[in-house]
């Protein structure tokens, strides 16, 4: 049976309200009495009810974290860094994974029932509709990976600038027959990265020879790259919308005996930890996760503290990480 605050009060010989004050840093209570109550609570295995605390208006200490497919390398990496940073602030993350096509409303309604203090929405790989629904949830919200104009505070890598860096190096390497493997068509990151790629190629007098959709997965990148490399149009570079698809494209090139980078260049986006592994040594655009998390939590903390004003947009500068595949 779960230990309650009433149990702690009886064991400590104090009132129920004294137990509540002992677990509230801002509450007035004599220091030795607080220490005694906390020691009794620890011995009983008691943990305060964060939901009940939220209902009193003192804040639950919970931060909702809405992410896409948590099995994907980038989302898993982002979630790990974000969760650690939230815990370092003395708060707890409440995870709400939402896969593409999944209904978000039930998950958000569930989060609101927990009286969350705020939310971080990793929305680069979810649709605009889902991201906008998140921003209307009532608690302070910061959207990561997408910009919702006049809708919510946002932190996002400059996707177009990142792709401009990729095109510059591809052109310098003599690549002229460039193909694209993107993600879901209506996602923010896919739209901006494809725009950056096509704009950069156009400025160099080039255009895409083919465009495919690989759903951001290694398997999707592999399947689409096999199609590209066995098709009628010769390809000397494959630009991928994220690193997972680029790793799949490298597997396709190896399966077909295509030398990388001798015959073919392959690039990704995000610079997940696996991108630097010797087996891949992937040239990619660094999407700075640590900086993203720091900026997002700074914006969220300010809103939770009551800061007003129009939505803030933080655009982070990308960095090209040159490795063996280009």
Automatic annotation (TrEMBL):
SUPFAM superfamilies: lambda repressor-like DNA-binding domains, Periplasmic binding protein-like I. The keyword ATP-binding does not apply. PROSITE patterns: HTH_LACI_2. Keywords: DNA-binding, Transcription, Transcription regulation. Coiled coil: none annotated. GO terms for molecular function: DNA-binding transcription factor activity; transcription cis-regulatory region binding. Signal peptide: none annotated. InterPro entries: HTH_LacI, LacI/GalR-like_sensor, Lambda_DNA-bd_dom_sf, Peripla_BP_I. Pfam families: LacI, Peripla_BP_3. It comes from the Bacteria. Residues 3-57 form the HTH lacI-type domain. PANTHER family: HTH-TYPE TRANSCRIPTIONAL REGULATOR GALS, LACI-RELATED TRANSCRIPTIONAL REPRESSOR. This is Transcriptional regulator. It comes from Wenxinia marina DSM 24838. The lineage of its organism: Bacteria, Pseudomonadati, Pseudomonadota, Alphaproteobacteria, Rhodobacterales.
């Amino acid at each position: 049976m779960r230990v309650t605050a009433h149990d702690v009060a009886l064991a400590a010989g104090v009132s129920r309200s004294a137990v509540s004050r002992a677990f509230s840093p801002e509450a007035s209570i004599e220091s030795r009495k607080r220490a005694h109550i906390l020691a009794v609570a620890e011995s009983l295995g008691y943990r305060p009810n964060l939901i009940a605390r939220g209902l009193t208006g003192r804040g639950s200490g919970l931060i909702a974290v809405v992410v896409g497919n948590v099995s994907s390398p980038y989302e898993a990496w982002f979630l790990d860094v974000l969760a650690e940073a939230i815990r370092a602030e003395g708060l707890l993350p409440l995870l709400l994974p939402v896969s593409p096509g999944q209904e978000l409303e039930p998950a958000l309604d569930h989060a609101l029932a927990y009286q969350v203090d705020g939310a971080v929405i990793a929305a680069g790989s979810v649709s605009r509709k889902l991201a906008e629904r998140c921003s209307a949830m009532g608690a302070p919200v910061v959207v990561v990976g997408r910009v919702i104009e006049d809708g919510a505070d946002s932190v996002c890598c400059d996707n177009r600038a990142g792709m401009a860096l990729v095109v510059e190096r591809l052109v310098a390497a003599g690549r002229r027959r460039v193909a694209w493997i993107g993600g879901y068509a209506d996602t923010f990151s896919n739209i901006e990265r494809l725009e950056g790629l096509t704009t950069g190629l156009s400025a160099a007098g080039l255009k895409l020879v083919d465009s495919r959709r690989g759903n951001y997965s290694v398997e999707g990148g592999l399947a689409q790259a096999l199609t590209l490399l066995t098709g009628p149009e010769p390809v000397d570079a494959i630009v991928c919308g994220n690193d997972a698809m680029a790793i799949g494209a490298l597997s396709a090139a190896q399966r077909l005996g295509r030398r990388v980078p001798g015959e073919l260049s392959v690039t990704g986006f995000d610079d997940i930890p696996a991108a630097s592994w010797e087996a891949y040594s992937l040239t990619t655009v660094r999407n700075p996760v640590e900086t993203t998390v720091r900026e997002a939590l700074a914006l969220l903390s300010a809103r939770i503290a009551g800061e007003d004003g129009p939505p803030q947009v933080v655009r982070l500068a990308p960095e090209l990480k040159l490795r063996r595949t280009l």
